[in-house]
TrEMBL record:
Protein name from the UniProt record: AAA family ATPase
Keywords, alphabetical: ATP-binding, Nucleotide-binding
Keyword ATP-binding among UniProt keywords: yes
GO biological process: regulation of DNA-templated transcription
Family as reported in the entry's similarity comment: Belongs to the MoxR family.
Residue ranges annotated for the Sigma-54 factor interaction domain, each copy included: 1-141
Pfam families per UniProt: AAA_3, AAA_lid_2
Organism phylogeny: Bacteria, Pseudomonadati, Pseudomonadota, Betaproteobacteria, Burkholderiales
Entry annotated with the keyword Transit peptide: no
PANTHER family documented for this protein: MAGNESIUM-CHELATASE SUBUNIT CHLD, MOXR FAMILY PROTEIN
Molecular function terms from GO: ATP binding; ATP hydrolysis activity
CDD domains on file: AAA
């Protein structure tokens, strides 16, 4: 993973937090939604990552005239044989980049529902598995509303994390300009899909203390029933809370982050770091919250302040032995 990160950093300047989240999504087999204004290297990062991991990479530019068959594939009549054959769509790749996903209507976005959850596509009653590992990284632009469509809640919930990408610092922007206007950098392939799958298996073996799992459950539950956790004032601000996928995302994300940080066990700080990214897109603020200028991030911060982080759990005896 260090080699992958090194190669990506040869092209992408800064964005350390974003890159860390991309690697967490890869290890935890989760999907990533990336939001940021144009020109912040969202697409470049995913394309560069695909080159460093020697798997198949496909990019779909979402536009208002797309139809679901453009994503998953369709049945085509072969005049020579007189039979229908299946033409598979671009979702059949290890790393799928859904560029500007909010530019296509909901019926097209919904075509990704099955493949993101089940890792398979059903075309005319036939089921086709997508290659493993399979990760969807979608980008969206927050500043334009003309010609964009909000993502359906069921679709958004399938993304493990939503990462907000911010502008670079002046020093970073200077290096960006230097690199873009200089000689192009060639990126080497430093890993293959078999190695990535082995890392994903290793990630699942990372130990998470029950108290840390309980912390994740309480956090997510507090977004659904804030009154039960001493936050009655939040009830009027939340229309819907997070689903159980958020709890799973927090635990799997903490495992991946612990592995990236060189530990066979997760610590509270691993999970705390990921809470805003895992929860922000799953909360549906009410009209009252919007009227008072409260965003999902503000509500998440209030919940985090109320739910106590568990004491640093000791490493599992087996984990200590292997370490």
């Amino acid at each position: 993973m260090e080699s992958i990160l090194y190669e990506v950093k040869r092209v992408v300047v800064g964005q350390d937090r974003f890159l860390e989240r991309v690697l967490v999504a890869l290890l935890a087999e989760g999907h990533l939604l990336v939001e940021g204004v144009p020109g912040l290297a969202k697409t470049l990062t995913v394309k560069t990552l695909a080159r460093t991991v020697g798997g198949s990479f496909k990019r779909i530019q979402f536009t208002p005239d797309l139809v679901p068959a453009d994503l998953v594939g369709t049945r085509i009549f072969n005049q020579k044989s007189g039979e229908f054959g299946t033409s598979l769509g671009p979702v059949f790749a290890n790393l799928l980049l859904a560029d500007e996903i909010n530019r296509a209507p909901a019926k097209v976005q919904s075509a990704l529902l099955e493949v993101m959850q089940e890792h398979q596509v059903t075309i005319a009653g036939e089921t086709h598995r997508v290659p493993a590992p399979f990760v969807v990284m979608a980008t969206q632009n927050p500043i334009e509303t003309e010609g964009t469509y909000p993502l359906p809640e069921a679709q958004v919930d399938r993304f493990m994390m939503k990462v907000l990408v911010d502008y670079p610092s002046e020093e970073e922007e200077f290096v960006i300009a230097e690199r873009v206007t200089g000689a192009p950098v060639s990126v080497a392939t430093v890993a293959d899909t078999a190695q990535l799958q082995a890392l994903q298996t290793q990630c699942r073996a990372v130990y998470v203390d029950p108290s840390l799992m309980q912390y994740a459950v309480k956090l997510v539950s507090a977004t659904r029933r804030p009154g039960k956790y001493g936050l009655p004032e939040l009830e009027k601000y939340l229309t819907y809370g997070a689903s159980p996928r958020a709890t799973i995302g927090l635990i799997e994300g903490a495992k991946a982050l612990a592995l990236l940080r060189g530990r066979p066990y997760a610590l509270p700080e691993d999970m705390v770091d990921l809470v805003p990214d895992v929860l922000r897109h799953r909360l549906v603020p009410s009209y009252e919250a919007l009227a008072e200028g409260l965003s999902s991030d503000d509500l998440v911060q209030r919940v985090m302040k109320k739910i106590a982080v568990p004491d640093k759990p000791l490493a599992h005896p087996q984990a200590t032995a292997t370490a």
